Amino acid sequence: MHAKRIAGEKATDFVESGMVVGLGTGTTVYWTIKRLGEMIKKDNFHIKVICTSIETEVLASKFGLDITSFGEVNSIDLTIDGADEINQNLHIIKGGGGALFREKIVASSSKFNITVVDESKSVSVLGKFPLPVEVLSFGWEVTSKKINDLGTVSVRREGLNGKPFITDNGNYILDCHFGEINDPRFLHKNLKMITGVIETGLFFDTTNIALIGNPSGSVKVISNTIS
C-alpha cells in the first residue's frame, strides 16, 4: 500500500492550477485523487477533472474535485492512471478494474499521460496478468471463440452473485490468458479486427512518464521511451 501511495501522490507534482486533469481508475490513483482533494483546499488552486469510471467520479466527488465532461472542455492537459502491468518500453496492460475503454478515450485525448504503479506491476514482458478485452454482450460467446482462435483461453469476468461483470458502458469483459505478449501491437490489431470486440487493455504510444513506487519510499521514473 505504501508503494502505491507514494507513486499516486508523486504524480500530483505535475498538476498545476487551472488544468483539466484526467483521472484513471484503481487503488493507486485513489491516492492521487485524495491528494488532489487536499490541494484544492489551498487558495488559488483549482482544477477540473474528467473521470474514467463511475467509481472514480464517486471518489472525486467525495474529495471535492470539480468534475467536468468532454462536452465542456476542449482538451485534457494531463491524465494520471494506473496499470496492471508495464514494461520498460511503456507498453501497458490495463482493465483490471473494468474501465479500459474509457481509460483509452481519456488517454488518447490528453496532452500528457502519467502512469502510476507499485513495483510489482513492472515486468520485462507483458502477459502474466490476463489481458482484459471489452466485448459486446450480444453474441459474446461467438466473439470469445474467435478470440480463442488467436491462441488464448478467454474467460468472461464474473461480478457479484455469479452474474457477469458489466462495464460502465454496458459491455462484458473477457480476461484472456495469452501468456507472454512479445508483440502487443500485433495482438491488439488482430483483436480489434474481430467483430464484437470493443477495445483491448493493451496501451502503447500513450504514457509519457511512468512513476513506479517501492516500499522503501523511492519512486523510479521511466520516461522518453514511447515506442
UniProtKB/TrEMBL annotation:
Any GO molecular function: ribose-5-phosphate isomerase activity
Reactions that this protein is recorded to catalyse: aldehydo-D-ribose 5-phosphate = D-ribulose 5-phosphate
Annotated keywords: Isomerase
Pathways per UniProt: Carbohydrate degradation; pentose phosphate pathway; D-ribose 5-phosphate from D-ribulose 5-phosphate (non-oxidative stage): step 1/1
Binding site for substrate: T25, G26, T27, T28, D81, G82, A83, D84, K94, G95, G96, G97, K121
Biological process terms in GO annotation: D-ribose metabolic process; pentose-phosphate shunt, non-oxidative branch
Active site: E103 (proton acceptor)
Top enzyme class: isomerase
EC id: 5.3.1.6
Highest taxon above the source species: Bacteria
Membrane listed as a keyword: no
One GO CC annotation: cytosol
InterPro entries: NagB/RpiA_transferase-like, Ribose5P_isomerase_typA_subgr, Ribose5P_isomerase_type_A
Annotated function: Catalyzes the reversible conversion of ribose-5-phosphate to ribulose 5-phosphate.
Family designation: Belongs to the ribose 5-phosphate isomerase family.
Subunit structure: Homodimer.
Classification via HAMAP family: Rib_5P_isom_A (MF_00170)
Protein name: Ribose-5-phosphate isomerase A
Gene: rpiA
